[in-house]
């Protein structure tokens, strides 16, 4: 393997310098963390699946006019993306109460929200990514008002599209996290969608059983995380080898019963 410069190692991905200026290679690891990395583990094959799922989702989003950093998938675990300056805000889009929203406000998990809710967290591991308001973002200059307008309108369009995309494969999109970056063109910066969209940063529930098909299986020690990620990929039609043949690595048949045995949560 040729040597290349590592730019950054995160919890689930490694970034390397890309082949051309302004490009980056995103390498997807199997490492999984939760609760600000207090809980650590691995989900076998997760990196391969997230690379494929994220490629699929970003490609679809580009087709509906969302500007993204995605250029192309390079191999099983890597994709080529545009280099951006990450805006230090995690944009959480919620359709259904779950996770920290339920905890914070005492709303039962699974309750449909009257309308889509967008929350912002300041990206700072040392502070545990605290929830912030638009006032804080403006006050501390993390993003301009104009950028925040672009981010909010893209987040809503992305949500509308993804809700439909997942509903078509019998999955309820409960919530998800987005990250955006600035792409500089001279003095002008354009905001584009960055990072990844995968079961690591989404809550995905089977519409019939309520079964969790996302990282909550790991966070909450439910087991079956590998099978859950594979199931999402399978329903999206992504379980194939690069040559188009059926992928043994992703063969779900041995596991299919397992997920059904886990307790469905409404
Ligand atoms: P939360 O309910 O824990 O705030 O999570 C909301 C959504 O954001 C959920 O789909 C998981 C995702 N998320 C991340 O991708 N990264 C994070 O660090 C956190 C806290 C949540
Ligand atoms: N990825 C985050 C972490 O490690 C949190 C999460 O997804 O729950 O801490």
Can you walk through the features of this model?
- The chain has 266 residues and is of the alpha+beta class.
- Strands 8, 9, 10, 11, 12, 13 and 14 form a seven-stranded antiparallel beta sheet that branches. A five-stranded antiparallel beta sheet has the order 1-2-3-7-6. A two-stranded antiparallel sheet has the order 4-5.
- The radius of gyration is 18 Å and the shape is globular.
- Helix content is 28%, strand content 31%.
- Helix 1 packs parallel to helix 6.
- The site of thymidine-5'-phosphate (TMP) has 12 residues, from helix 2, strand 12 and strand 14.
Quick gist of this model?
With 266 residues, the protein is of the alpha+beta class.
Radius of gyration: 18 Å
Major sheet size, sense and barrel closure:
7 strands, antiparallel
The dominant shape is globular
Q: DSSP helix count?
A: 7
Q: Cofactors and ligands present? A: thymidine-5'-phosphate, aspartic acid
Q: Termini separation (Å)?
A: 47 Å
Chain-wise SSE layout:
Layout: E1 6-9, E2 13-17, E3 23-28, E4 31-34, E5 39-42, H1 46-63, E6 70-73, E7 78-82, E8 85-86, E9 89-96, H2 99-105, E10 112-122, E11 131-132, H3 134-139, H4 145-167, E12 171-185, E13 188-194, E14 202-206, H5 216-219, H6 225-235, H7 256-261
Antiparallel strand pairs: 1-2, 2-3, 3-7, 4-5, 6-7, 8-12, 9-10, 9-12, 10-11, 12-13, 12-14
Helix pairs in contact: 1-6
Bound molecules: thymidine-5'-phosphate and aspartic acid (ASP).
